Amino acid sequence: MIAAPEIPTDFNLLQESETHFSSDTDFEDIEGKNQKQGKGKSVVDDWIESYKHDRDIALLDLINFFIQCSGCKGVVTAEMFRHMQNSEIIRKMTEEFDEDSGDYPLTMAGPQWKKFKSSFCEFIGVLVRQCQYSIIYDEYMMDTVISLLTGLSDSQVRAFRHTSTLAAMKLMTALVNVALNLSINMDNTQRQYEAERNKMIGKRANERLELLLQKRKELQENQDEIENMMNAIFKGVFVHRYRDAIAEIRAICIEEIGIWMKMYSDAFLNDSYLKYVGWTMHDKQGEVRLKCLTALQGLYYNKELNSKLELFTSRFKDRIVSMTLDKEYDVAVQAIKLLTLVLQSSEEVLTAEDCENVYHLVYSAHRPVAVAAGEFLYKKLFSRRDPEDDGMMKRRGRQGPNANLVKTLVFFFLESELHEHAAYLVDSMWDCATELLKDWECMNSLLLEEPLSGEEALTDRQESALIEIMLCTIRQAAECHPPVGRGTGKRVLTAKEKKTQLDDRTKITELFAVALPQLLAKYSVDAEKVTNLLQLPQYFDLEIYTTGRLEKHLDALLRQIRNIVEKHTDTDVLEACSKTYHALCNEEFTIFNRVDISRSQLIDELADKFNRLLEDFLQEGEEPDEDDAYQVLSTLKRITAFHNAHDLSKWDLFACNYKLLKTGIENGDMPEQIVIHALQCTHYVILWQLAKITESSSTKEDLLRLKKQMRVFCQICQHYLTNVNTTVKEQAFTILCDILMIFSHQIMSGGRDMLEPLVYTPDSSLQSELLSFILDHVFIEQDDDNNSAYYNDYGDIIKETMSKTRQIDKIQCAKTLILSLQQLFNEMIQENGYNFDRSSSTFSGIKELARRFALTFGLDQLKTREAIAMLHKDGIEFAFKEPNPQGESHPPLNLAFLDILSEFSSKLLRQDKRTVYVYLEKFMTFQMSLRREDVWLPLMSYRNSLLAGGDDDTMSVISGISSRGSTVRSKKSKPSTGKRKVVEGMQLALPEESSSSDSMWLSREQTLHTPVMMQTPQLTSTIMREPKRLRPEDSFMSVYPMQTEHHQPPLDYNTQVTWMLAQRQQEEARQQQERAAMSYVKLRTNLQHAIRRGTSLMEDDEEPIVEDVMMSSEGRIEDLNEGMDFDTMDIDLPPSKNRRERTELKPDFFDPASIMDESVLGVSMF
């Protein structure tokens, strides 16, 4: 860990001077609300006193403060401060940066380091605030600090660059606040001056006028100074770091510029600054896009700023709308919230198409996205009221103000054409439209009452939608949790939420206990409406039937349910009736006896009717007609539906169902629906008997009777597995699987050893028939290619199975994958012979499967390292397993398998590619290495895949491309010790070795490249550059001169191979000597050179931070910048005049034209 002993949460600085920022007390509580102006202010006050006494010593303290806050152990001495340029100091500190891991204070985890960051930022703000009246204008302190931070922000050391950028941006924010105060003071002074000057000459105080003029002049000069400081920071830091390769640094810049525009809108809220936010909305990293949106929210929230945002809105509105589909959910949520603010500022800005893009997100599975979209929908369609609604505020029901809004909700639901997702629509709007969604009286009135004169009645489709929405609102209010897929589980309700829940259930019960029988009577013939209405009693407070004296309404409800059972044969309706009886038959309430009697009467009638009909239906010698079959089926459906939720054991339904099923087996002419429901009903009989035996003490006779019934029923199901009707076979198969699962050995778990007689193990014939069913009806041949034949139906199951097996044993899972590819390869050889066409669809299909297998290993190469290495080992052995009978001049018979194996090469770490390459060479002869014919192409292709990407895994704190979370170094990593990990014939470097920059560079030296001899290009870096005073007009490229690389012509292939073989034995010894001779500083220097040469701090020019980050495909970005003023500008505070430049500030050696070129976003700049 970098400098952990020196930098805990406090700022314990080690300087030569006597003045220090003390450790535990000064900054530990600097962010505390009650002590921000206390201890934090006292630290700054002490430093100011020190500065007034000796400003060089005080500034030295401040410089070392920033250096140490970056995690650097180096100390700037007084001698260095007096005689060295900033660039030399930074170079010196870079050399002394003791890099042990990729972490530094700003990236370290834990509450103390979060406290460090907030204290660090607060300190800078307090420093400027305490110095704003004198010291910051002395043309020394701020010049030194800004020059230091500007230089550090250009460092290749990420810790320096990150820390100094944060400091510079917070410094800029503090200066913006000072500039705003100066502007206010200037306005006040100007008004006072005008008021005094407009007085009559006799009453005018000339001395006061002179004082006001002098004060205004001083304020103007101070404002000019502040402008220059802000320009230096903005042009020297911001315009370069907002495009930094590190996402955290880009995010800091965008967050702060949003603060500047909001804080001082007169100076910063214009297109010249908004463009940076607009461009960065295309950033690759979600956290940066998120900062853009939150910055814009702060601006759009203030309606007074809307006029200044019109051009920006017109140019970047489409991008904001597209970000509602961002792959990062947090970004999508903030994009929707931003559009809601845009909608509130001006409804004309968003087109109907823009709004529709947000509307459909109310059905998103991610609840925060759906809730944000619901609020947008509510603001757009439901928050406005017509003036005539004002007189309806006190009315209720159909004449109330919510009636039209409820209709609007129904219309929206129907137009969205997602009729199975009303629960998700309700949940999306629950937080913002609670009053509307809980107006059940209005909904009930719209369903039961006749329309008013001139009012259009609801259509049948609209009534169905309203009933479904009403049910969903009642469920949401009663259960207080989102629908399935929207939440992580039931959360603990607060006391307030529990009270609201009880009040809502009481309101629901009082209203619908009376209204539900009327609704059921009105819609009794409509299966869809009745099914939804019958679910309402599940959410009733049943005690209210007694306390509210509503028994007569309960009787009316029971009568309606009975009538519905008699009218309908639809399974959904019957199961809804069964569930309603189950909800009402609660022994805790006094209504239980009343409901139980009604239920028993209904089941008695159904059982008697079924037995009577069955006797006539199975009468020998008579052919049953269709009417008899329908009567049996409809009665059996009703009984089965009730048996699902109720114990009907006392009616002994097993015997009659067994008789029915046995007759069907003997005669073979039983209607399929009767067989299906008889099987299901018998299954329920078995399960209810098992439940009774398990829950209460039972006799041995009960166990034996259940065992006998279960075995007999399994035999019947086994017979029906061979039925000619597919639906019957599927029902029998499903029930058999359930029974085998329930009555397996696990039935005895939990101390239930007495159930051992019920354990059932299928015999070989049943197993065979079950397997035959799977082969005949599940894994059937399809017309698709071999690899994707079952992907659509079983892809998710296969992927989950692979994931579980990988969690159990990664290496065995990898061996299984390579074995499956080898089997497919062998099958192809058997069909086509060894001279098959490698461009054939069969071989291409195997390669495609290998590519998909490779994708399942994910992005974390360290976790799958050994498994991937083992996969390559097995693949190489398989490829060379069968030598060619014609001799070594011909390829091994399975050599083409290397073409398939190359699909996994990208999953190897760089150092493991080297190891696999060496292992491959063990199987290669000298003649093989010289072969160039087409039949040897798989070998050449595989070798090249192992030699490619030598620098893919370079990670270092001194890097422009590493980022927190991507580093793989262990915090306790040590320099390479030469240990190797053996993986069945191959040696892999331990993960800890590859973690440090040392081992990475050593591994890079070990990497075997194709031996084309080249001169090493000479590299330069700003860090190692000799001090040079640059003119402001010097361009960015002139600061980083690159010498031309010189290449010798490549050698022919035979010479390369000869050279490789000659050098192989000497390579390890030579590299060991080089490592021993190479110092740590030299390693760091080379790393800096390579990164400066190979990867700029900025992203590459070709769309550097832009990628497709949407959940759905989007077209190319259009020209977003047309008509906007995008010239690089100086910060121009509104009242500023007579600016003067300061030569003491470090010159801005970045060419303004290089801030961003046309290739950055693929759009034109002007």
Automatic annotation (TrEMBL):
Residues annotated as domain SCD: 238-323
Gene Ontology cellular component terms for the protein in this record: chromatin; chromosome, centromeric region; fibrillar center; mitotic cohesin complex; mitotic spindle pole; nuclear matrix; nucleoplasm
GO biological process, one term: cell division
Any Pfam family: SCD
Main location: nucleus
Molecular-function annotations in GO: chromatin binding
Any coiled-coil regions, as ranges: 179-232
Skewed-composition ranges (Basic residues): 969-980
Oligomeric form and interacting partners: Part of the cohesin complex which is composed of a heterodimer between a SMC1 protein (SMC1A or SMC1B) and SMC3, which are attached via their hinge domain, and RAD21 which link them at their heads, and one STAG protein.
Subcellular location: Nucleus; Chromosome; Chromosome, Centromere
InterPro entries in alphabetical order: ARM-type_fold, Cohesin_Scc3/SA, HEAT_SCC3-SA, SCD, STAG
PANTHER family (alphabetical): COHESIN SUBUNIT SA-2 (PTHR11199:SF3), STROMAL ANTIGEN (PTHR11199)
UniProtKB keywords: Cell cycle, Cell division, Chromosome, Chromosome partition, Coiled coil, Nucleus
Function: Component of cohesin complex, a complex required for the cohesion of sister chromatids after DNA replication. The cohesin complex apparently forms a large proteinaceous ring within which sister chromatids can be trapped. At anaphase, the complex is cleaved and dissociates from chromatin, allowing sister chromatids to segregate.
UniProt name for this protein: Cohesin subunit SA
SUPFAM superfamilies per UniProt: ARM repeat (SSF48371)
Family as reported in the entry's similarity comment: Belongs to the SCC3 family.
Region listing for Disordered, in residue ranges: 962-981
